């Protein structure tokens, strides 16, 4: 192994091969709920050629590789296990924006580029890079692609996958696939791009990508509505599609109990309509307009009139300015923080066909309440994409740690069985990582698992790329 | 082999196993320029289970399978070779629309459903299925997905790939993968869907799909503009993105020589602005509006004012009604017919990064004119997607058949080398089929080819699924 470390030091420079103690920033998951892993080394190559050389050195010595971007995985996808055998390959030094092409509406950038920097670079060129999620200040575009990240504008722009035109990838053999052509149409063989996107580093290492850009919108408006039932929230989504067309860039659903946690733990945030209305559900809508703010406001008001007339909403407010709009979003994005302050909870990142969401929620709420008296369900998410963060909190007053220890497996079983029954997914946007490997085996069909394993074995026969994450052989 | 035919007859009914003469409808490419192939049999299963049984019977006897939808391939992708050893597996009887889900904005339908029927079914449910291409009256959705078809609305809605939420596929082993979940977010393992889409039947047989639907637009307007240079056509595209946002659903470019052929051979069609303006380029724009026809017209007029002021257009007309709009499209879609009447020609379906299109055209036009005095270049296509149908016609008066025989290889070489040099694709939307297998080997990188072959061998180790098409082992 000292031979390998020598080769790695020679390849990337000895300053960029980190060993020993004090590597928590790479060895520990950012939530810090799980025990710290132990890497053989953290290796920080500077460019694609160095990444390829590191991979070849690891392949030659049978050393497993854990690729890592901003270390913001929610599923233990990018930290090493405790064996001390795995290297962490950090993409952080590959952070260049290689090119922005305004006429082609595309941007080529390296995997370690932080998402927020990518957004800013596009904006400076007068364009929009629409991928947006809570960790955008530290997550990287390579990680976003490796996990096919979602976020808050998927209803309009799609997931990270839909925003990608091309990739550069280092294969498990340490070869470089240059697939960075910024084309909207290219039917020349299998779509390798989509195979690597969402593969969580198990088939190769994404080192750069060409991503779609969009014209900067002229206006963006945000509204907040109190909704009588979850069925009416789904009906409101339909009306929003009709009235706003592609202008609808966000539709977030929040249960009353989720917002009550925000009001309790983050009292400096004013939760709109919560005190005034007894509604069990609230919705945040975002409308993006290529014309003008007046036009956006007209469209929004027409939508709200129709929604009030149809009984989809009890009441609604449109943010009067950007500050108020940001405040609406801040309330939405503070639910996780408020939940953490309330105590440990059991998180589920699920997707359900939108039509079936009301029945799913009624069914699963009832099963959980039956199983555990007083259990609290904190349900919120991206309704426009059918993606719910259906989280379960201990009954008020119970010790959350004991609750988790005793009930987590049982609650997961209830929730994931219901998800399967309603044709949904147990991992909508957070990926599988090391955390949900068993769920993948349980809920993917044997035919799908067989195909996935055949692909993994064909491309990574030594099983060195993020082994044991996502797909167990 | 008679054993196999017996099994097939038992599986799908003897009426649906066709052998002998008179099978030209399945054995011959629709252009009828290539010699007719010879199938061992044409097999017409009625449902997914029958498809799976047919595949198992073929796997057991080592019989190659050519899947076929509407037999409208432009690249010899779905007709049998001359060996008499291959069966044609026709999906035509799997044509049901299984479900339309308005709240989920999705439709599940079988592979043999004709594209136009899918469009009509969506419309009857008050929704839009936006995939649209010239052969929509006979091509099938399964074929569209197998080849990742493009068409005229890609600039807004993407290719067939981008419209697909889920697939049902029969694997080369005759197993059924049910991946029909209609979810917008699902990160549970490798994206098998995108691997099968565009694989041209070489990895399995798509039997059904869940596709995205959209709200029906309130208005659709079409405009026709005369443009001074191809650089200004690209600038007009940028203005259209800015002014129309997601309302821009089509931007087609047509060279003057392409339209002159239409005017000469199809004199009943009036080509707008051709007689009045000396412009070398014309553009057809389509604007789709979720609000109203008045609003669409206002937006279009604002765009045209800006384009005139910027010098992007010489003159423009907006269609005054649906009939006139259809006439504009008819002119655009008649270019191929007019070309055929002028005589055989050498077709190229290429994509180039949009910014580089003007330089590519200048470069390649010059090379061809230098190589063959008087050669005529008929250039038109989907500029919004960077997709050109860059076709080459014999000098006026030359015999097209002799021209093709003597010059086709040389012209292809010049065009495809230039495409590679400008970072483009030799097959934008028509696929590879049997026609462009050599181009794939020449212009895909060795690393990409190695990955593709590893995948093909892993999933279809007997090489029975459309063998020799797309990817040669």
From TrEMBL, chains A, B:
Q: Does the keyword Flavoprotein apply?
A: yes
Q: Which Gene3D superfamilies match?
A: 3.30.465.10, 3.30.70.2190, 3.30.70.2740, Uridine Diphospho-n-acetylenolpyruvylglucosamine Reductase, domain 2, Vanillyl-alcohol Oxidase, Chain A, domain 4
Keywords annotated in UniProt: FAD, Flavoprotein
Please give the coiled-coil regions recorded for this protein: none
FAD-binding PCMH-type domain residues: 35-216
Matching InterPro entries: FAD-bd_oxidored_4_C, FAD-bd_PCMH, FAD-bd_PCMH-like_sf, FAD-bd_PCMH_sub1, FAD-bd_PCMH_sub2, FAD-linked_Oxase-like_C, FAD-oxidored/transferase_4, Oxid_FAD_bind_N
Q: Which family does it belong to?
A: Belongs to the FAD-binding oxidoreductase/transferase type 4 family.
Question: What name has this protein been given in UniProt?
Answer: FAD-binding oxidoreductase
Organism, scientific name? Giesbergeria sinuosa
């Amino acid at each position: 192994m000292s031979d390998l470390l020598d080769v790695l030091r020679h390849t990337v420079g000895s300053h960029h091969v980190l060993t020993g103690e004090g590597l928590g920033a790479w060895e520990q998951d950012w939530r810090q709920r799980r025990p710290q892993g132990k890497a053989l080394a953290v290796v920080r190559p500077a460019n694609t050629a160095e990444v390829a050389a590191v991979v070849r050195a690891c392949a030659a010595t049978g050393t497993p590789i854990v690729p890592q971007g901003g270390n913001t995985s929610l599923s233990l996808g990018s930290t090493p296990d405790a064996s001390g055998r795995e290297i962490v390959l950090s993409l952080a030094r590959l952070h260049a924006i290689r090119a922005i092409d305004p006429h082609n509406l595309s941007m080529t950038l390296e995997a370690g580029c932080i998402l927020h920097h990518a957004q800013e670079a596009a904006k400076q060129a007068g364009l929009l890079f629409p991928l947006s999620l809570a960790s955008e200040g530290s997550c990287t575009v390579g990680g976003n692609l490796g996990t096919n990240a979602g976020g808050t504008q998927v209803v309009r722009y799609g997931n990270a996958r839909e925003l990608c035109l091309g990739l550069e990838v280092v294969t498990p053999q340490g070869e470089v696939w240059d697939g960075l052509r910024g084309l909207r149409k290219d039917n020349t063989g299998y779509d390798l791009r989509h195979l690597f996107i969402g593969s969580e580093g198990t088939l190769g290492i994404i080192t750069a990508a060409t991503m779609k850009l969009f014209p900067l919108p002229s206006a963006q408006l945000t509204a907040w509505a109190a909704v009588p039932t979850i069925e009416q929230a789904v009906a409101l989504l339909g009306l929003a599609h009709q009235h706003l067309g592609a202008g609808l860039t966000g539709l977030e659903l929040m249960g009353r109990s989720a917002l009550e946690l925000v009001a309790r733990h983050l009292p400096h945030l004013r939760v709109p309509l919560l005190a005034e209305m007894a509604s069990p559900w609230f919705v945040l809508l975002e409308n993006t307009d290529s014309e003008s703010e007046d036009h956006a406001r007209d469209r929004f008001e027409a939508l709200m009139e129709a929604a009030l007339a149809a009984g989809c909403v009890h009441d609604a407010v449109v943010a009067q300015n950007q500050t108020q709009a940001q405040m609406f979003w801040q309330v939405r994005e503070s639910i996780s923080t408020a939940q953490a302050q309330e105590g440990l909870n059991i998180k589920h990142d699920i997707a359900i066909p939108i039509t079936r969401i009301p029945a799913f929620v009624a069914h699963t709420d009832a099963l959980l309440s039956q199983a555990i008296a007083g259990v609290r369900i904190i349900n919120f998410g991206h309704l426009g994409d059918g993606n719910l963060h259906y989280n379960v909190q201990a009954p008020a007053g119970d010790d959350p740690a004991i609750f988790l220890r005793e009930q987590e497996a049982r609650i997961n079983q209830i929730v994931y069985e219901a998800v399967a029954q309603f044709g949904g997914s147990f991992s909508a946007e957070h990926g599988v990582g090391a955390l949900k490997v068993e769920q993948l085996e349980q809920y993917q069909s044997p035919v799908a698992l067989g195909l996935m394993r055949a692909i993994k074995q064909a491309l990574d026969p030594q099983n060195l790329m993020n082994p044991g994450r996502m797909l167990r052989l």
